[in-house]
User: Which sequence fits this backbone?
């Protein structure tokens, strides 16, 4: 498999101000761009020839929902798309069958074909809230991976050594620690790299945890006679706690399909320091605009005002401007002690019921231990009154139950 890029890679094109401006767009908020001079030359070639670059992002549909941490790299894709380049949203339906071992200390169970198909259905629908749907090329890596067959897989495996594979940090740690590494896990970076060959990628994007896999793609392209792709890694967005990366399993995430009021409230809960990190990685405002907002805060403006602007921008992106305005009104009303209009209605049995069980059964907390923690911190209210006794029993009746600032339910207990 060869590329016309291989034939033109030796020619040097003049670097214009437009190419340098495009480079600045690509680098905004990124962790690393390899190799910068090569990518600048690709941009110059694209401008001179009128042929857009092919920019690839591969995502395995391991879960059906996307949170705003995932949109950091999608935002970058959109910025490059707006510059006129071709973005390829690659759904890893084949690689999901292997399971990405990145950052894991144990073998990841591969998904079934049924799970992959279910998740993939909603994946692009959510990604299209960021990308330009009409200008996005959607591909599935089973297109070329399934065709390889056993002989093709063996030939592909011959192009990379075990020593190189064990340079990968997570593999090294597992090998040194005596933790099993299944042979099929070595196939994952190879197959991801082969995707770049099949798509003749000019640039591949990913999180910082994907750097090794992206470099494999670059190496394989050289071996297949193609001009090697550049790679651009984006930081992993910290979750609401400001410490761990955003993750559903850590419950510190904002789902892009969440209700506007929940999304708004979560964004308002981040620290004033973390707010700037979210501005850099999530906002579509220019760097100059963000710098001006920083100066205003340094000059005495309330950081809450700036956080409201961010929350409204994000809610409007995934819902609408009208929804963002309503979310602000609801947030302000809650801050004054008001109960939202659209709280869920829950019916429970078992009165008198322990407060921790009531909170869990009403789906206001994931566990009784989480319920007790909220009670200890003064974050639980029934009809506006703080509940401080973890052993409290709630009699039959209908109550407005609140956990924290955003979780409400009208509970009828029988």
Assistant:
């Amino acid at each position: 498999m060869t590329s016309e890029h291989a034939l033109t890679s030796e020619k040097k094109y003049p670097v214009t101000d437009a190419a340098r401006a495009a480079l600045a767009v690509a680098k905004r908020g990124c962790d690393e761009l390899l190799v910068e001079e090569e990518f600048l030359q690709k941009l110059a070639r694209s401008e001179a020839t009128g042929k857009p670059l092919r920019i690839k992002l591969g995502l395995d549909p391991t879960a059906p929902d996307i949170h705003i941490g995932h949109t950091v790299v999608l935002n970058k894709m959109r910025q490059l798309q707006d510059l006129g380049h071709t973005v390829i949203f690659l759904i890893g339906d084949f690689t999901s069958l292997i399971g990405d071992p990145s950052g894991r200390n144990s073998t990841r169970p591969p998904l079934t074909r049924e799970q992959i198909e279910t998740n993939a259905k909603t994946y692009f629908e959510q990604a299209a809230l960021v990308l330009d749907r009409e200008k996005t090329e959607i591909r599935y890596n089973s297109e070329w991976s399934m065709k390889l067959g056993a002989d093709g897989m063996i030939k592909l495996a011959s192009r990379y050594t075990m020593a190189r594979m064990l340079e990968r940090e997570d593999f090294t740690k597992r090998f040194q620690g005596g933790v099993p590494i299944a042979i099929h896990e070595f196939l994952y970076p190879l197959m991801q790299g082969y995707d770049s060959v099949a798509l003749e990628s000019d640039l591949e994007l990913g999180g910082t945890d994907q750097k090794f896999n992206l470099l494999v793609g670059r190496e394989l392209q050289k071996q297949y006679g193609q001009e090697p792709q550049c790679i651009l890694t984006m930081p992993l967005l910290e979750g609401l706690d400001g410490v761990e990366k955003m993750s559903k399993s850590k419950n510190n995430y904002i789902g892009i399909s969440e209700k506007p009021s929940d999304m708004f409230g979560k964004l308002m809960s981040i620290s004033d320091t973390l707010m700037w990190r979210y501005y850099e990685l999530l906002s579509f405002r220019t760097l100059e605009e963000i710098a001006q907002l920083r100066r205003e805060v340094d000059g005495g403006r309330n950081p809450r005002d700036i956080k409201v602007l961010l929350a409204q921008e994000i809610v409007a992106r995934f819902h609408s401007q009208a929804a963002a305005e309503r979310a602000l009104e609801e947030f302000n009303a809650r801050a004054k002690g008001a109960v939202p209009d659209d709280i869920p209605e829950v019916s429970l049995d078992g009165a008198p019921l322990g407060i921790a069980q009531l909170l869990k059964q009403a789906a206001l907390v994931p566990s009784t231990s989480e319920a007790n923690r909220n009670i200890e911190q003064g974050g639980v209210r029934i009809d506006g009154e703080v509940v401080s006794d973890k052993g409290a029993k709630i009699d039959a009746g209908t109550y407005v139950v609140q956990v924290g600032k955003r979780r409400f339910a009208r509970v009828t207990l029988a």
The mean pLDDT is 86. The two ends are 69 Å apart (CA to CA).
